[in-house]
Amino acid sequence: MTLRLWPVKTKERRATVLAGLILLQALCALFFVSDVVEDFRLDGKLDNPHLALETVAAFALISGVVFLMVELRALLSRMSNMQTGLDIAHGQLAGVIEEFFDDWHLTAAERDVALMILKGLDNDSIARVRKTAPGTVRAQATSVYAKSRTEGRAQFISLFIEELLAGSDHPDDGVRKLS
């Protein structure tokens, strides 16, 4: 299960709503500008309070359209930067996990079990997914904990969280902290 602070569809919906509001506001500005031009053409004077109010409204609407366009562009840029950051973080996490596993000399089966532990699966679920006996998974998990010098599932998971929060360059640094 993937948890996102702000679902992708919500961000896209917000951008679409903002674009719609910009379009609506632009149409209103066009109406007021054309009305001001027509009234000025007929009357030829700007001393009419109604005409002055329409001119101010048209200017405000145009200013709003420009402001909203800038905001929409900034929103789209932030969305792109956030996605890029998430992609980088995901790639870095995978790299950190692989470095740890390499340093601990985990077997392929132990790597599978360790990844599933990190994903939050319990031993019985891991056994079902891997089509092995729960006892085999328990033995492999125990081996993973021993090789990582952790005392169980919670400490094993916290090792990776601590590594990500600390931003350490070498996986052994996280192991030394817990020893």
Automatic annotation (TrEMBL):
Transmembrane segments: 52-72
Assigned keywords, A-Z: Membrane, Transmembrane, Transmembrane helix
Ranges for domain HTH luxR-type: 103-160
GO process annotations (BP): regulation of DNA-templated transcription
A Gene Ontology molecular function term of the record: DNA binding
UniProt cross-references to InterPro entries, sorted A to Z: Sig_transdc_resp-reg_C-effctor (IPR016032), Tscrpt_reg_LuxR_C (IPR000792), WH-like_DNA-bd_sf (IPR036388)
Protein name: LuxR family transcriptional regulator
Organism: Meridianimarinicoccus roseus
